[in-house]
Amino acid sequence: MTVSVVIPTLNEERYLPFVLESIRSSRFTILQKHQIEVIIADAKSTDNTVEIASQYGVKVIDGGIPSVGRNKGASISNGEIMIFLDADVIFSDSFLENCILELINRKLDVAGAYFSVTRGSMQYIFFVLLNNIAKFVRQFTPYPVVHGDFIICRKEVFENLGGFDEKMFFGEDNDFVLRSVKSKFKYRVLKQSYITSERRIQKIGIWGITKTFLIFTFEMLRANIKNLEVQERLRKVYGENLQSKHRYTNPK
Q: Which residues form the Glycosyltransferase 2-like domain (predicted)?
């Protein structure tokens, strides 16, 4: 069995070495390392992102906004299981295999994971706790919470759903999972956890994060999240700090 890891990037020279090192350092007791392929979907980085990826011997392709990059990566992947990561995550050496085995053993189709708190500002800890509670509670509802920095799914499910919606500026990760639930695929949050950076909080603050969360949740319940006006409201919350979570301009 092959597992494909897809990471969309734009000017990620600061963070990319850490996530690639996490992947390289992963240990496997049942799977083999050669069964893990890594694909970087890069949106025309102007720093050393592509060079760093090449040093790690991973595939590099032309990307775009996160949804486009993920879809392009998936289109050339060989894996039966897909893992989508952001460049600013790190995890333990047992994380990847544990996630893969848990997906298989629990007979899940799509899954997320929890944020891990090892250190950080009070704002960051609040952000992590808020999101973990929401992830746990809402996984049992028609409106689960997921983050694009870690999504794992079966390849046939990804193809059945048509991948990520490339027209969405914000929330394409949640939209993907919502569509999977509506299509009767099984989604749950894995027992595993990973660390994500504080950069989004540092850019727009805890109020910006909370405001985004509330707007998104309200519009999601109204089945209105794909509305262009709603997408623009979310864009304004992020303002000039869109790159803090890969929210960059589609180069197409």
A: 4-161
